[in-house]
Specification:
The protein is 14% helix and 43% strand. The protein has 327 residues and is mainly β. The strands form 4 sheets. An 8-stranded mixed beta sheet has the order 5-4-8-2-1-11-14-13, with no helix packed on it. The chain has a 5-stranded mixed beta sheet with strand order 16-17-18-20-19. Strands 9-10-15-12 form a 4-stranded antiparallel beta sheet, with no helix packed on it. Helix 1 (234-250) packs parallel to helix 3. Strand 1 (14-26) and strand 2 form a beta hairpin. The protein is globular and about 65 Å long. It contains 3 helices and 20 strands. The protein starts with 13 loop residues before the first strand and ends in a 7-residue tail after the last helix.
């Protein structure tokens, strides 16, 4: 297994095609549990699968690879997480069959306080301090949330399912397709994403208000923020709708996602992050208070909106045209 240590890129034995990810964040104890099923194409003879993982605890009893043609379930003979290299190496007793299969892994992790990976941000509600769960995966921190091929060129489709407290709002890149409530817990499932890099996957769970509008062709746009701050999101909402209309004409290509959510995060390292369908922002970069905000805040919202929606529109346009990119 040591042969994979210290390498700048993952080996090309296997190519991920799609991920089915399920996460259950615990906002009280600041931990999360999860599972991932990765549809893989084994393209070269190997008895190893090597992917990225960092600061995760892997449940070795629930790691397996199932070949699609034979339906044979293969268990790894050895599992090693190299923390320094942030890689997970699975060794199998025999050479893996070429072709498609499913890699299944269960894991646990911590909602850290470092504003990267799957982390916790704090806010106050009715005088009580509470936690929200937030993702920030750029440049290479999706591996702190789920085992994956965490390189920009390793694009895939993502299907997300979240198990969260029933009173909270759970957001991801795509619209909700099903929501089931079982007592104090609800399970929220989302549409499959377009093909994208791991660093664009996004999840946010917390207590929020929002304001909403639509573009002329029916794209739902929302600005989420802390409770009682919804009015501060109206300016950004107006800018977002106008900018999407502008770029639809500029790129001669409609925005190809069914919705655009923007959310203000109290603890956020960057100004904003252009996740497909769920753009995350530092609060001061998204919210505008007519009574207290400076004119520079309004200018900043406009500049960020133009630049980030440009990035989103351009990358979606590139995807539609079936062009490949490392970024």
């Amino acid at each position: 297994m040591d042969r994979f240590k210290g390498q700048p890129r993952l080996p090309k034995f296997a190519v991920p095609k799609s991920y089915d990810i399920r996460l259950k964040p615990d906002l009280v104890h600041c931990r999360f549990a999860g599972s991932v099923a990765v549809n893989l194409d084994i393209v070269a003879a190997t008895s190893f699968i090597v992917l990225n993982a960092a600061e995760l605890s892997i449940n070795g009893d629930f790691v397996s690879f199932t070949n699609r043609d034979s339906s044979k379930v293969l268990k790894p003979s050895s599992i090693e997480l190299f923390q320094e290299d942030e890689i997970l190496v699975l060794e199998f007793p025999d050479t893996l069959p070429l072709g498609l299969g499913v890699l299944s892994i269960q894991f646990e992790g911590t909602l850290n306080d470092r504003m990267k990976g799957f982390y916790r941000s704090t806010y106050e509600h009715n005088g009580e301090k509470k936690n929200m769960a937030v993702t920030q995966f750029e440049p290479a921190d999706a591996r702190r949330c789920f085992p994956c091929w965490d390189e920009p060129a390793c694009k895939a489709i993502f299907k997300i399912t979240l198990d969260v407290p029933s009173e909270l709002i759970a957001l991801s890149n795509m619209p909700i397709v099903e929501e089931k409530i079982d007592g104090t817990l609800k399970t929220v499932s989302y549409q499959e994403s377009p093909i994208m890099s791991t660093y664009l996957v996004a999840v946010v769970v917390g207590l929020f208000d929002y304001v909403e509008d639509h573009t002329s062709d029916g794209i739902k746009v929302r600005v989420y923020c802390q409770v009682d701050k919804a009015n501060q999101g109206k300016f950004a909402l107006d800018v977002a709708v106008r900018t999407l209309e502008l770029y639809k004409d500029y790129f001669a290509c409609p925005y190809s996602l069914p919705k655009l959510d923007m959310i203000a995060i109290p603890d956020f390292a960057a100004g904003a992050m252009e996740n497909y369908g769920l753009v995350t922002y530092r609060e001061t970069a998204l919210l505008y208070d007519d009574q207290h905000s400076a004119a520079a805040n309004k200018q900043g919202i406009i500049c960020l909106s133009i630049s980030f929606y440009s990035l989103i529109s351009l990358t979606l346009f590139v995807q539609v045209e079936n062009m490949s990119s490392d970024y």
